Amino acid sequence: MGSLNDIGVAAGINILSAVGFLLVFAVVRIQPINDRVYFPKWYLKGTRSSPRHIGNVLSKFVNADVSTYLRFLNWMPAALKMPEPELIEHAGLDSAVYVRIYLLGLKIFVPITVLAFAVLVPVNWTSATLGDDEEGLSYDQIDKLSISNLGPGSKRFWVHIGMAYVFTFWTFYVLYHEYKVITTMRLHFLANQNRRPDQFTVLVRNIPVDPDETVGEHVEHFFAVNHREHYLSHQVAYNANALASLVKKKKGLQNWLVYYENQHAKNPEKELTIKTGLWGLWGEKVDALQHYKTTIEELCKQEDEGRQKVISDPKAIMPAAFVSFNSQWGAAVCAQTQQTSNPTVWLTEWAPEPRDVYWPNLAIPFVELSIRRLIMAVALFFLTFFFMVPIALVQSVANLDDIERVLPFLKPIIERNGPRSVIQGFLPGIALKIFLIFLPTILMAMSKIEGHVSLSGLERKTASKYFLFIFVNVFLGSVVAGTAFQQLNSFIHQSTNKIPETIGESIPMKATFFITYIMVDGWAGIAAEVLRLKPLIMFHIKNTFLVRTEQDREQAMDPGSLEFGSTEPRIQLYFLLGLVYAVVTPIILPFIIVFFGLAYLVFRHQIINVYNQQYESGAQFWPDVHGRIVTALVISQILLIGLLSTQEADQSTVALLPLPVLAIWFHYVCKGRFEPAYIKFPLQAGSKRILLISSPYITADDIHIVSNVKRELRLMFAGGHGEGHAATGKRPDAEPERVPQGRIRAPRLPQR
Amino acid sequence: MGSLNDIGVAAGINILSAVGFLLVFAVVRIQPINDRVYFPKWYLKGTRSSPRHIGNVLSKFVNADVSTYLRFLNWMPAALKMPEPELIEHAGLDSAVYVRIYLLGLKIFVPITVLAFAVLVPVNWTSATLGDDEEGLSYDQIDKLSISNLGPGSKRFWVHIGMAYVFTFWTFYVLYHEYKVITTMRLHFLANQNRRPDQFTVLVRNIPVDPDETVGEHVEHFFAVNHREHYLSHQVAYNANALASLVKKKKGLQNWLVYYENQHAKNPEKELTIKTGLWGLWGEKVDALQHYKTTIEELCKQEDEGRQKVISDPKAIMPAAFVSFNSQWGAAVCAQTQQTSNPTVWLTEWAPEPRDVYWPNLAIPFVELSIRRLIMAVALFFLTFFFMVPIALVQSVANLDDIERVLPFLKPIIERNGPRSVIQGFLPGIALKIFLIFLPTILMAMSKIEGHVSLSGLERKTASKYFLFIFVNVFLGSVVAGTAFQQLNSFIHQSTNKIPETIGESIPMKATFFITYIMVDGWAGIAAEVLRLKPLIMFHIKNTFLVRTEQDREQAMDPGSLEFGSTEPRIQLYFLLGLVYAVVTPIILPFIIVFFGLAYLVFRHQIINVYNQQYESGAQFWPDVHGRIVTALVISQILLIGLLSTQEADQSTVALLPLPVLAIWFHYVCKGRFEPAYIKFPLQAGSKRILLISSPYITADDIHIVSNVKRELRLMFAGGHGEGHAATGKRPDAEPERVPQGRIRAPRLPQR
Question: Where is the composition biased (Basic and acidic residues) (chains A, B) (predicted)?
Answer without folding.
Answer: 730-740
